[in-house]
User: What shape does this take?
Amino acid sequence: MSVQLGDIAPDFEADTTDGHIGFHEWLGDKWGILFSHPRDFTPVCTTELGYVARLKPEFDKRNVKAIGLSIDPLDSHKKWAADIGETQGTALNFPIIADPDRAVAKLYGMIHPKHDEVYTVRTVFVVDPAKKIRLTITYPQTAGRNFDEILRVIDSLQLTDGYSVSTPVNWKPGEDVIIVPSVTDEVAKTKFPKGWKALKPYLRLTPDPRN
Ligand code: BEZ
Assistant: This one.
């Protein structure tokens, strides 16, 4: 099954390092990052999970909860957690789903058989408070993800949900944003009182409206 942008994130129940959860209930009114990693006790995955634990203050600022997944069993996750704390400087502070029967992996299309028939690839699903899928990214098993980029896209989504803007290439919070083409100059005068720079009629840059 492929899970696409705009779909409602499929709900599931699973055992995790923080106990048994129902995914939608666990998310509550927060944004969520659901991400799969191939295996426990592997080097790239260890660095990724440590980094996600270190990002907790950034997730909290944005009302985001993270949850990992691999097809390894719960006792393996729990033993590996000690290694993550020891080597990455931060103890695991978010749940990891144990998915030994691959139920969640299949539901979300996390196994790409031509890449690896058995283990999940590195997928990322960002879910909004309405449980809608807002971002999907798939990385190969050998490349650790850039979780700063995932945070950056969440910043863009949270901004563009509140204003008639989109964000340009490599945008970072605080930088100029783009007034969406469906907003006429007449309407833009009231929506964007700080004004804008029109490089083309369809390319109008305005300061971040939250500043
Ligand atoms: C790793 O986490 O290091 C890894 C896992 C599976 C395949 C390749 C690398």
Notes: The chain has two domains: 13-145, 163-206. The CA atoms of residues 121 and 140 lie 6 Å apart. The mean pLDDT is 97.
